[in-house]
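One thing: mind reviewing this one?
=====
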Amino acid sequence: MTRTQNEYDAALQQARTGFDEGGIPIGAALWRDGELLGAGRNRRMQRGSAILHGEIDCLDHVGRLADYRDCTLYTTLSPCSMCAGAIALFQIPAVVIGEARTFPGEIEFLRDRGVRVEVLDDPVAAELLTRFAAENPAAWSEDIGGR
Protein backbone atom coordinates (compact mmCIF):
# COMPACT_ATOMS: atom_id res chain seq x y z
CA MET A 1 0.00 0.00 0.00
CA THR A 2 1.55 3.27 -1.05
CA ARG A 3 0.65 6.49 0.63
CA THR A 4 1.81 10.00 0.86
CA GLN A 5 1.52 12.30 3.84
CA ASN A 6 -0.68 14.52 1.70
CA GLU A 7 -3.27 11.76 1.36
CA TYR A 8 -3.53 11.20 5.12
CA ASP A 9 -3.42 14.95 5.79
CA ALA A 10 -6.66 15.38 3.82
CA ALA A 11 -8.42 13.16 6.39
CA LEU A 12 -6.67 14.86 9.31
CA GLN A 13 -7.73 18.29 8.06
CA GLN A 14 -11.34 17.10 8.00
CA ALA A 15 -10.97 15.95 11.64
CA ARG A 16 -9.56 19.34 12.64
CA THR A 17 -12.40 21.14 10.85
CA GLY A 18 -14.94 18.93 12.62
CA PHE A 19 -13.35 19.70 15.99
CA ASP A 20 -13.42 23.44 15.25
CA GLU A 21 -17.14 23.10 14.41
CA GLY A 22 -17.79 21.45 17.79
CA GLY A 23 -18.12 18.01 16.23
CA ILE A 24 -16.45 14.68 16.81
CA PRO A 25 -12.97 15.01 15.24
CA ILE A 26 -12.88 12.10 12.82
CA GLY A 27 -12.04 12.70 9.18
CA ALA A 28 -11.75 10.53 6.08
CA ALA A 29 -10.55 10.90 2.50
CA LEU A 30 -10.84 8.55 -0.49
CA TRP A 31 -8.00 8.54 -3.01
CA ARG A 32 -7.32 6.78 -6.30
CA ASP A 33 -3.98 7.00 -8.10
CA GLY A 34 -2.98 10.25 -6.38
CA GLU A 35 -6.37 11.90 -6.99
CA LEU A 36 -8.57 12.96 -4.10
CA LEU A 37 -12.06 11.68 -4.94
CA GLY A 38 -13.71 13.12 -1.85
CA ALA A 39 -13.38 13.80 1.85
CA GLY A 40 -15.67 14.08 4.81
CA ARG A 41 -15.88 14.27 8.57
CA ASN A 42 -18.06 13.08 11.37
CA ARG A 43 -21.01 15.48 11.31
CA ARG A 44 -23.30 13.78 13.81
CA MET A 45 -23.20 16.74 16.20
CA GLN A 46 -23.39 19.42 13.53
CA ARG A 47 -26.27 17.83 11.60
CA GLY A 48 -28.07 15.94 14.38
CA SER A 49 -27.46 12.77 12.38
CA ALA A 50 -27.48 9.23 13.68
CA ILE A 51 -25.17 7.89 10.96
CA LEU A 52 -22.99 10.66 9.54
CA HIS A 53 -19.62 9.24 10.58
CA GLY A 54 -16.48 10.47 8.84
CA GLU A 55 -16.18 7.54 6.47
CA ILE A 56 -19.88 7.68 5.55
CA ASP A 57 -19.71 11.45 4.96
CA CYS A 58 -16.64 10.92 2.78
CA LEU A 59 -18.33 8.23 0.67
CA ASP A 60 -21.39 10.46 0.35
CA HIS A 61 -19.22 13.31 -0.96
CA VAL A 62 -17.53 10.96 -3.43
CA GLY A 63 -20.87 9.85 -4.82
CA ARG A 64 -21.50 6.69 -6.76
CA LEU A 65 -18.50 5.00 -8.31
CA ALA A 66 -18.72 2.01 -10.59
CA ASP A 67 -15.60 0.55 -9.00
CA TYR A 68 -13.81 1.30 -5.73
CA ARG A 69 -11.22 -1.47 -6.13
CA ASP A 70 -8.31 0.87 -6.91
CA CYS A 71 -9.06 3.22 -4.00
CA THR A 72 -7.54 3.75 -0.59
CA LEU A 73 -9.58 5.17 2.26
CA TYR A 74 -7.71 7.27 4.81
CA THR A 75 -9.42 7.74 8.16
CA THR A 76 -8.19 9.29 11.37
CA LEU A 77 -9.80 6.66 13.62
CA SER A 78 -10.35 2.93 13.30
CA PRO A 79 -13.71 2.37 11.56
CA CYS A 80 -16.73 1.27 13.60
CA SER A 81 -18.97 -1.61 12.53
CA MET A 82 -21.11 0.59 10.28
CA CYS A 83 -18.17 2.18 8.51
CA ALA A 84 -16.26 -1.10 8.20
CA GLY A 85 -19.40 -2.59 6.67
CA ALA A 86 -19.50 0.17 4.07
CA ILE A 87 -15.81 -0.40 3.27
CA ALA A 88 -16.48 -4.11 2.81
CA LEU A 89 -19.68 -3.52 0.83
CA PHE A 90 -17.94 -1.26 -1.68
CA GLN A 91 -14.87 -3.53 -1.80
CA ILE A 92 -12.41 -0.79 -0.92
CA PRO A 93 -9.17 -2.78 -0.79
CA ALA A 94 -7.01 -0.60 1.46
CA VAL A 95 -7.56 1.51 4.57
CA VAL A 96 -4.99 3.69 6.30
CA ILE A 97 -6.00 4.47 9.89
CA GLY A 98 -4.58 7.39 11.84
CA GLU A 99 -4.99 5.76 15.23
CA ALA A 100 -6.73 2.84 16.91
CA ARG A 101 -5.87 3.40 20.58
CA THR A 102 -8.79 5.69 21.35
CA PHE A 103 -11.20 3.24 19.71
CA PRO A 104 -10.01 -0.13 18.34
CA GLY A 105 -12.89 -0.43 15.88
CA GLU A 106 -13.26 -3.24 13.39
CA ILE A 107 -9.73 -3.77 12.08
CA GLU A 108 -9.99 -7.56 12.26
CA PHE A 109 -13.36 -7.49 10.46
CA LEU A 110 -11.69 -5.61 7.62
CA ARG A 111 -8.63 -7.87 7.52
CA ASP A 112 -10.85 -10.96 7.55
CA ARG A 113 -12.41 -9.62 4.35
CA GLY A 114 -9.08 -9.11 2.64
CA VAL A 115 -8.76 -5.37 3.23
CA ARG A 116 -5.17 -4.22 3.64
CA VAL A 117 -5.05 -2.17 6.83
CA GLU A 118 -2.24 0.11 7.97
CA VAL A 119 -2.37 1.86 11.36
CA LEU A 120 -0.18 4.96 11.60
CA ASP A 121 -0.55 5.55 15.36
CA ASP A 122 -0.80 9.30 14.70
CA PRO A 123 -0.42 11.29 17.94
CA VAL A 124 -2.22 14.33 16.46
CA ALA A 125 -5.40 12.36 15.74
CA ALA A 126 -5.19 10.67 19.14
CA GLU A 127 -4.85 14.02 20.90
CA LEU A 128 -7.84 15.50 19.08
CA LEU A 129 -10.02 12.54 19.98
CA THR A 130 -8.80 12.33 23.58
CA ARG A 131 -9.47 16.04 24.04
CA PHE A 132 -12.94 15.80 22.51
CA ALA A 133 -13.81 12.75 24.66
CA ALA A 134 -12.69 14.52 27.83
CA GLU A 135 -14.70 17.65 27.00
CA ASN A 136 -17.77 15.79 25.63
CA PRO A 137 -17.97 12.34 27.26
CA ALA A 138 -21.66 11.77 26.52
CA ALA A 139 -21.29 12.63 22.81
CA TRP A 140 -18.16 10.48 22.54
CA SER A 141 -19.85 7.51 24.21
CA GLU A 142 -22.90 7.86 21.97
CA ASP A 143 -20.76 8.04 18.83
CA ILE A 144 -18.77 4.90 19.54
CA GLY A 145 -21.73 2.90 20.76
CA GLY A 146 -21.25 3.34 24.49
CA ARG A 147 -17.96 1.45 24.59
In short: Residues 33 and 71 are 8 Å apart (CA to CA).
